[in-house]
C-alpha cells in the first residue's frame, strides 16, 4: 500500500511541476510578445515618436524607470515562433539563431533622458535574431545579427 501512495505522490508532484513550468513558459511568451512584437507596425509620424510611444505603450517606459534598450520585430508571430523549430539553428543552451532576417526597430534611450520623461532614439533594419525558446515558444530576444 505504501508503494502505491509513494508512486501516486511522485506522479502528482511531477504533474504539478509540469503545469507550473507550462504556466511560467506561457507567461514568459506573453511578455516576449508584449516587449518585442509589433505587427503590423504601429503607424506614427517618424521613428523617434515610434520608439517613445511604443516603449510607454508596452510598459517599458514608466514613471520611475526607463528601459535602456529594446527591439521590436515587425513580423507575424508564427514566423518568430518558427525560429524555435525548423526556421532556427541551435546555438548554445536554449538559444536559436533565425535563418531569416526580420524587419525591426531598435529603440535606445536618449542620453540625458530620465523617467518619467523617457525619450528614445530609434533605428530600423532587417537582421537575423538570436532568441531563447522554452517549450517551442520564444521567451527572450538575446541579440540581433547584422547581415553581411
From TrEMBL:
Pfam families in UniProt: RnaseA
Alphabetically ordered keywords of this record: Endonuclease, Hydrolase, Nuclease, Signal
SMART domains assigned to the protein according to its UniProt record, in alphabetical order: RNAse_Pc
GO biological process: defense response to Gram-positive bacterium
Domain of life: Eukaryota
Segment forming the signal sequence: 1-26
UniProt family annotation: Belongs to the pancreatic ribonuclease family.
Family matches, as PANTHER family: ANGIOGENIN-2 (PTHR11437:SF65), RIBONUCLEASE (PTHR11437)
Protein name stated in the entry: Ribonuclease A-domain domain-containing protein
Organism of origin: Anolis carolinensis (Green anole)
Taxonomy of the source species: Eukaryota, Metazoa, Chordata, Craniata, Vertebrata
